[in-house]
Amino acid sequence: MSTLPSRSVAVVLGTRPELVKLAELIRLLGPAARILHTGQHYDPELSGGFLDELRLPEPEFLPGVGGRSRAVQVGAALAALDTNFEAAPPLAVVVQGDTNAALSGALAANARELPLLHVEAGLRSHDRAMPEEHNRVMIDRLADVLCAPTPGNRELLLAEGIAPERIEVTGNTVVEAVRDHLPPPRERAALLAGHGLTADGYVLATVHRPENTDDIAALTAVLGELARLGEELPVVLPLHPRTRARIAAAGLDPLLETVTVLPPSGYGTFLALARHAAVIVSDSGGVQEETTVLGRPLVVVRRSTERPEALADFAELTPPGPGITTAARRRLAEGADGLRRLAALPSPYGDGGASLRIAGLVETAARAGRTAGDHSSVPAGAAA
Description:
Blueprint: E1 9-13, H1 16-29, E2 33-37, H2 49-53, E3 60-61, H3 70-87, E4 92-96, H4 100-111, E5 116-119, H5 131-142, E6 145-148, H6 151-159, E7 167-169, H7 174-181, H8 185-194, E8 203-206, H9 210-213, H10 216-230, E9 235-238, H11 241-250, E10 260-262, H12 267-275, E11 279-282, H13 285-294, E12 298-301, H14 308-311, E13 315-318, H15 323-343, H16 354-368
Parallel strand pairs: 1-2, 1-4, 2-3, 4-5, 5-6, 6-7, 8-9, 8-11, 9-10, 11-12, 12-13
Helix pairs in contact: 1-16, 3-4, 4-5, 7-13
């Protein structure tokens, strides 16, 4: 439990994955944590009981951010955060990952000369078409303490000229999140039975990234491949509200006829489904990490990834198209032996102690005030 003053650390976030990955850190900070939610994921299906499941207090929501364009989201969140930080300056600011919320939090902390910690620093896809790549590079330039999940992430930061004393290899908080929220075997068995599923006998899929949902050709290709797989074995698709709206607008509902569509699930429910899937098909960054903890094979439906560690054993990368089915069938052909092999491998994302290490770094930064060095402006070439 933190010994910092109450509400002295601003934790800025705006999406469900950030809540998941920061939950244990927030719990460790206790009353010192002040959760500021930009509402980037603004649909009530993506929040609600989710906070209760993660055992988190209600955040302070910033108005006028969710559901708007990227530039407007960042601008509105930055203005709201600046007002908030002026009224009650925190001792430190924590952001996670590469969302618009994280970038807004980083810019607001920098403007107020507040110590900034970036959880999940040093990830790089080297793909300029990804808005997240620009966000994460900018945040890393601004951060005073960069919490790199892996030694490889540290090496990338050093290669970009980040001072080594600003970088700490902490592991990824996803490891403890999965371990903490995966339901016990009996609950998982009941969940599968309730959906008529057999362990190791179905495909679990998710699709939500704009590159796959805003491009009708890409969305058609992804759903078409899931429909093909659905003719061979059950395909379960928890459907993001935004993706559901895109499917309806494009008239692609017939492609869901062989797929079992579920509403957005709680985190524990998703982990239970992922734990027993024969193969997972997803465009999610977080799922790439979670599968390494769960020991499940993954087909990543993207052109590039910032998580190459998962590709070594657990995942393979393919853009929308026939490669999805080909890769899934290849993993399915490995059968029980393949699943046992993955289950025996350690996750490349650490030992489950990342949140505790980061909590210590937060306390040190908060007590020390602004860390040495002037990061008040972004160096030339900082954008991806």
